[in-house]
Structure prediction request, 472 residues.
Amino acid sequence: MRIAVRDLHKIINGFIGDPVCNQRGSILIGVIVTMVVVATLGTAMVTLTTTSTYTHVGAFDAAKAYYLAEAGGRYAIPIIRQEALNGGDPFDPATGTIARLNGKTFTMTDGDMFRLVLSYAAPTYTLESFGLLRQGANAFEASRKVTFVINASVAPGVAIAFDNTSDLRDNLGAVAGAAKATGGKLKIDKDNTELGLKWDGSASLPNLADMWSSNDGLLGYSLQIKAALNPGIKAYVGGISFRLDSATDSSYGFSFARRSGPGSQCGSLPVGFCAQDGNGNFIIEEGFIYIVLWKKVAGNYTILDSRKAQTADGVIDNPGLLKAWSTLVVRVEERYRTDSDGNYLDINGQITTDPAARTRENVITAYVQGQDDTDAKAYKYRRDINPCDCDTSECSCTIHWQYGKFNPVNWEGAGLQPITDSTLTSEDFGVVRPEEIGIHYVGDSGERFFDDFAITVDGGAGGGGGNSILRY
Prediction:
């Protein structure tokens, strides 16, 4: 039934003109007005809901395109860094990163892709990564570009001096045990000693919190130290600590190690260093020098991997004892775990687009080197040489960050590949602000010295804003 507006007026006026119907007319008017308002609001709600739905679809696709672009960066940046660290040529037609990455498109199994554009003007790489989201025959496309700037210059690093007591007091704090500076080197005074870097608030040490914040909440760095442990010491574990948090009694460690005692007796070492492999053999055999990567969680030690030191490692002499001032170097790269297509994974290994659900992991690469100065063109890497007395392209100085100068550790379990572990990460670093880096010694008494402790922090790849484009 349709009622014209003029007829509606007559009906209303009739009710108003009739005294008996005045009250009923007022009620009817109220009902009609209410119906009109509700109908108008209903129309507005439909429009709002539709707009909200379209906005949600656009935002989701834009976010997915962004993560594709970021995945492209995460794929390419380690390749670029490796070339930079090894002194490679970006423009080499066979092995250079320009040939390998520039203009290349990588397609995922679902048809989504990222495309890379790479340029290099020494010492800076500029990487543009485009995330391209395809949705079948509808020709709907979302794309996002993220620009990364990677500085390829080898960082000079920061040396932590042991010249006097004030150096030690300003740079390192005792988590356990005791040590002192003497004769320009660090002397361990207690059989169970751990020192933590006092970076927070220091004017001379890197601000690790700033580095963490500027690198998408990831913290990576390289560390090195030289050790001189008396050959008469029968049992010890000594070297570099990282991801060190005294509040939870947790850390990783990269160490020279030696075990004494028959059978399963650990003596002065934590019981974790008397662990056995699947065949019932001790991971660290009695009386030999080992290179060990381990972790400590709530005070409990676990060996991640190890290697019985060989002559080729450059750190043992003919009797098989540790050479004085042999060097430990460890590179720690923290990253978000991805699948083969570059998708971020959560703790259950499922693809996630939620930044808070991404799983972190540490990629740990270890090197060693002795003080072999028999060939001026090989390794003149003595503790007391500063500056170098030979061409730096052919030899090493007291502290050096060209990893080709060191021997990579060929782990008994993982081989030459880096070891990946996600037990201890920097997830809450900005709030917790732990020591993060340090020096440790656990073992028997004797003369125990360290020197040339140095750190260089990965600046990471700065992510530029770039632009985002949505096309319908």
User: Anything to note?
Assistant: Residues 22-85 form the longest helix (64 residues). The mean pLDDT is 80.
